Amino acid sequence: MDGHPSDRLVAGVLAGALLTTVFVVGMLYLGIPAEHHANMATRLGLPVVLSCALLFPMPLLHRTVLRERRSEFLLDEDLNAMLLGRAIGVIGGVALGVTLATEML
Fold it and tell me: So where does this one cross the membrane (predicted)?
């Protein structure tokens, strides 16, 4: 199914962008954190931290600590491509989320 590391890269980009966009739009819509208590960097930083906390732990653990427990079909190149894709997706998701939030709100 996932025969090439570029498949993992694209899947990581899509997953990172979708999750980060949902967090950015949702948190800006709900006003978390409150506007009078936080500046825009904090309001955009919190969704990025949350999406990174959900996206990166398992691939990093499979890359380092759980190396012996991972599937023999999951190569280091696949994990590197997945991590790179998720990082690119988080950056793109912030841009897309801010664009959608300004259009909707």
Answer: 9-32, 44-62, 83-102
